[in-house]
Q: What sequence folds into this?
């Protein structure tokens, strides 16, 4: 062990578990790539104001969880706590939002940072894959994103997840609801912090996870009863499209989510095997965000799926991912055979065969152990006598069968066997 440990609330991704993270990222990305989403990468930190304005001063993410700091040059920056504000900022900066170019569909994958109280499924450094469809108000886009997330989870073999769906209304109807909710909340017995939250952003009180708060919220006015006709119709179209795609969802009128920028469609993916950190992903429509960060009106929708929690969900469901062995062929060189086998391994790799060789001058026993540990299907073993005869021993590590094969033919033979 070294003197140092991974910082509190973080963990390292190391083999063999790390392959699951790669597989999850790839499974989420694949349907997006396949649906017109282009890859975007933005810096790990931004001007702190982007998040303060974009995500909202009153949210936990900004008020409590953000890693904000001043640089030596005096810039006020923050490690990114989420992806949407950065992606929108980048799209605006690059003028991707030209007329005729909309919606701009982007996906991303990366690390996010929140100063949270570490617990199972909740870390200070975590990983998300996200997607944003910027600049179009079209229920089919909201539906597309929900359907693609469902496809991603299913392609991984996840089954015990649920999709919760709600509409948060728009700038016409939400203020009316907000007032009704505020007056309901003012009659409750809440702690000082929650009372303050009720003043700044009353919808977020609905998101309070504490049982004593939830108990008091029974009978609270629900947004559905306040939606204007345009929002109602929009929401019905989203629901109809998802239903037609055969994707099951639950209407959840208390779903509000923790970010200020959401309007209309909001959704969350929850997994029932994760205890209290049950959200594996979430998202929604954020029609006002562009204007909040100084851009033009660009109604948009997006989601972010948590990679860490998706891996935990796979483990909770006992799903074994179908991950091919990293190595197909392992070379064991004895005597003076190393340069020849090293050359064969290089040739195999160039031919697209996953190949490895034992290093460090091990004897037959140690090198064969390496071969078995590698998960390879075949070993090529050779010593001075084999090479004098122009052959290597090709050993099938599954059946134990071993045959000599000409050095000049072994690459072709292996390619054929592994095809
Ligand atoms: P929660 O209600 O669990 O705090 P959130 O609403 O803060 O979640 P989002 O901002 O919607 O989460 O982020 C999308 C996804 O990213 C979450 O559904 C979750 O899977 C993952 N996520 C968020 N925060 C963390 C964290 N601290 N550690 C691990 N994963 C996280
Ligand atoms: Mg959170």
A:
């Amino acid at each position: 062990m070294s003197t140092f440990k991974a910082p509190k609330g973080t963990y390292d991704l190391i083999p063999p578990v790390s392959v699951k993270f790669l597989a999850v990222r790839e499974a989420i990305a694949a349907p997006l790539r396949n649906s017109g989403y282009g890859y975007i990468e933005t810096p790990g930190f931004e001007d702190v104001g982007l998040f303060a304005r974009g995500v909202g001063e009153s949210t936990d993410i900004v008020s409590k969880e953000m890693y904000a700091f001043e640089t030596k040059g005096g810039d006020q920056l923050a490690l990114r706590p989420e992806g949407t504000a950065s992606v929108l900022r980048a799209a605006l900066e690059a003028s991707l939002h030209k007329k005729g170019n909309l919606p701009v569909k982007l996906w991303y994958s990366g690390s996010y940072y929140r100063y949270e109280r570490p617990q199972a499924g909740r870390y200070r450094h975590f990983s998300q894959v996200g997607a944003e469809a910027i600049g179009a108000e079209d229920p089919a886009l909201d539906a597309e994103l929900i359907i693609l997330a469902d496809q991603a989870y299913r392609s991984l073999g996840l089954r015990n997840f649920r999709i919760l769906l709600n509409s948060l209304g728009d700038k016409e109807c939400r203020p009316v609801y907000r007032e009704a909710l505020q007056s309901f909340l003012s009659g409750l017995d809440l702690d000082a912090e929650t009372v303050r939250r009720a003043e700044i952003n009353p919808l977020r009180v609905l998101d309070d996870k504490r049982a004593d708060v939830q108990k008091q919220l029974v009978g609270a006015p629900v947004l559905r009863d306040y939606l204007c006709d345009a929002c109602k119709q929009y929401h019905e179209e989203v629901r109809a499209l998802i239903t037609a795609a055969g994707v099951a969802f639950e209407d959840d009128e208390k779903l509000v989510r923790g970010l200020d920028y959401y309007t209309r469609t909001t959704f969350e993916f929850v997994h029932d095997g994760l205890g209290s950190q049950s959200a594996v992903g979430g998202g929604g429509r954020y029609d006002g965000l562009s204007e909040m960060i100084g851009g033009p009106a660009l109604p948009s929708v997006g989601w972010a799926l948590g990679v860490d929690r998706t891996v935990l969900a796979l483990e909770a469901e006992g799903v074994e991912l179908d991950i091919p062995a990293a190595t197909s062929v392992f070379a064991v060189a004895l005597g003076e055979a190393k340069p020849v086998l090293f050359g064969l391994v290089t040739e195999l790799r160039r031919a697209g065969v996953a190949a490895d060789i034992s290093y460090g001058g091990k004897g037959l026993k140690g090198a064969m152990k390496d071969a078995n540990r590698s998960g390879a299907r075949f070993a090529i073993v050779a010593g001075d006598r084999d090479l004098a005869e122009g052959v290597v021993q090709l050993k099938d590590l599954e059946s134990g069968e071993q045959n000599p094969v000409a050095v000049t033919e072994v690459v072709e033979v292996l390619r054929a066997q592994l095809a």
About this structure: The chain has a mean pLDDT of 95. The two ends are 42 Å apart (CA to CA). The chain has two domains: 17-173+227-317, 329-418.
